Task: inverse folding
């Protein structure tokens, strides 16, 4: 597991970004460091290698040539890496995310509107990578309709444009909520909710639902079921809407985010990727270092293992041992290169086998 340090592994929000990523070469070096923390490693044979004049790397064993951006969202882009990085930084550090319009205005590059749309879509698509740790412990699950914000469709009859969304939220003891997951559902049938629950909630967890019949078989799916009846709550004089406070809170925040940041301009076919972005931000809401999201996005970009945020350490801690630069056989040596601020090359990631 890795411990990430602000000011070493990712920039602090206080002006470090500009200092670190002044040139495309700096950006490239950062991506290479994320992709090959111990120096270039050949994808084909695992050998080391050296950098070619055009910025690519060549394997010293099998002569395979590649670059850190090959096959990533940066592949064959016409936009300078400094612009990509700046956009990624804005996307990451805006607390509620950015719309394409806001990004375009901030970057003051009018003619790139389409590019920004693609760019935001690409960042968003990174956030839906599978393989994340499923929710566990006690988890509230429910479905709700989201969307239908198009102008002129306000009111109950907008329902045709709405999309049914499954929501799962971890319940913390004694209070508060943990992580959440959301996904578009075809319908509220037992098959649909079973697929949703088994995708996002670890078997053995306690699942709290309302009395909807589709959840009746949940014990057979490998979970402990805690159904809460709205009718029973009402007869006890309790508020039936308070039965599943976690999912209702997440649903309300999602709707507010779609209307606020994105002015409700989210088409049903793209809703899934917006939900992924919301979930990604929600699950990192307690992190005070927005630079982490920047690091995480770029890490996902170059295909490295995503980092779990609970492993993160805070502060400008340094290793006691002197830094060892990632030298690979045949590497031409760093002395000819421009002296730059590259703190990520000074700090060394702390690994353990946990
Ligand atoms: Zn090779």
Result:
């Amino acid at each position: 597991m890795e411990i990430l340090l602000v000011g070493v592994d990712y920039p602090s929000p206080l002006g470090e970004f500009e200092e670190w990523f002044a040139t495309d070469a700096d950006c490239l070096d950062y991506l290479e460091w994320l992709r090959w923390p111990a120096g270039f490693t050949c994808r084909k044979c695992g050998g080391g290698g050296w950098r070619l004049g055009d910025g690519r790397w060549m394997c010293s064993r099998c002569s395979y040539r590649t670059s850190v951006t090959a096959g990533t969202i940066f592949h064959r882009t016409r936009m300078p890496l400094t612009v990509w990085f700046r956009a990624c930084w804005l996307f990451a550090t805006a607390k509620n995310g950015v719309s394409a319009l806001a990004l375009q205005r901030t970057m003051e590059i009018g003619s790139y509107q389409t590019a920004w749309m693609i760019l935001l879509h690409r960042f968003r698509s990174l956030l839906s990578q599978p393989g994340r740790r499923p929710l566990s412990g006690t988890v509230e699950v429910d479905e709700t309709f989201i969307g239908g914000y198009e102008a002129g469709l306000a009111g109950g009859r907008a329902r045709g444009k709405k999309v049914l969304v499954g929501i799962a939220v971890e319940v913390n003891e004694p209070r508060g909520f943990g992580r959440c997951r959301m996904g578009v559902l075809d319908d509220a049938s037992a098959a649909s909710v079973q697929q949703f629950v088994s995708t996002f909630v670890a078997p053995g967890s306690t699942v709290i639902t309302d009395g909807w019949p589709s959840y009746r078989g949940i014990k057979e799916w490998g979970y402990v079921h805690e159904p809460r009846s709205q009718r029973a709550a009402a007869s006890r004089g309790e508020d039936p809407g308070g039965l599943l406070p976690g999912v209702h809170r997440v649903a309300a925040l999602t709707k507010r985010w779609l209307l606020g940041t994105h002015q409700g301009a989210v088409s049903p076919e793209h809703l899934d990727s917006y939900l992924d972005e919301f979930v990604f931000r929600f699950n990192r809401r307690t992190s005070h270092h927005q630079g982490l999201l920047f690091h995480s996005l770029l890490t996902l970009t170059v295909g490295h293992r995503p980092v779990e945020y609970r492993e993160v350490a805070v502060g400008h801690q340094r290793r006691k041992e002197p830094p060892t630069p990632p030298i690979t056989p045949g590497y031409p040596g760093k002395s000819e290169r421009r002296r730059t601020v590259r703190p990520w090359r000074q700090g060394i990631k702390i690994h353990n086998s946990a």
Observations:
- Residues 151-160, 305-338, 350-354 have pLDDT under 50 and may be disordered.
- The longest strand covers residues 138-147.
